Amino acid sequence: MKTLLLLVLSMVAVTCEANAQDAQCFSERAAMVETIRAHARSYAGVLGPQGFSARVLQAIGQTKRHLFIPERSCSIAYADRPLPIGLGQTISQPLIVALMTELAAVAPDHVVLEVGTGSGYQAAILAQLARKVCTIEIVPQLAEAAAKALRELAYDNVSVRLGDGYEGWSECGPFDAIVVTAAPEQPPPALIEQLKVGGRLVMPVGPAYTTQHLTVVEKISLDKTTTRGVALVRFVPLTRSRN
Ligand code: SAH
Description:
This protein has 243 residues and is α/β, with parallel strands linked by helices. The protein has helices at residues 2-39, 44-47, 54-61, 74-77, 94-104, 121-129, 140-152, 189-193; strands spanning 83-86, 89-91, 111-115, 132-137, 158-162, 175-180, 195-205, 212-221, 224-233. It has eight helices and nine strands.
């Protein structure tokens, strides 16, 4: 009886701690969304005068970034900067996550591919906007940790696969939108092939360890695309499985 009581009390304590952490992060998260909204002005040429859509800001406002990073501190998780997630990789700055998500123009019936699962944070945001999200990660430990975090948070419409995203994931597609969160030197042909006509591929393009162009490729017909560079960004390189 005593053991049972102690068990119940410790469970209550754990739940309270988790709730307190969530409640504390609530204000940090709201502040982060305001920072993103305010920075829309810097991207007026890309986003238009209306800035970020309410849908994207709402998805970001509902996503618990602190549960996707190793150091679960609210102040660190919700600062508008990139953060290390281990194994030499980083989770992108929230503003850039918002920008890439907005540019992907995800609708509720869309099937979306993400290349570079990392922590799973961007996949969680996409999962709230799309019908189905398929995400590929090349580093086994990251793929495992992200799949676990996404499962625990009940993002049931996300599938995580371990592999080289340069080749895409044809069995999961074709895709209405593809978001690549590591930089290839050129847009990967397989990704353009797996994009539906009318679909968008959003990714950094350029050499490793320097700035790259955040690029939007639109597939306007089966054999035609348009490409535009929208901002300068800095991402980790897209590595290949033979490297
Ligand atoms: N979107 C992530 C951040 C990604 S950082 C998030 O929200 O946390 C870029 C990720 O791309 C890293 O985890 C890196 O391991 C992964 N990556 C690099 N090359 C890759 C490739 N060819 N295929 C799949 N993932 C790749």
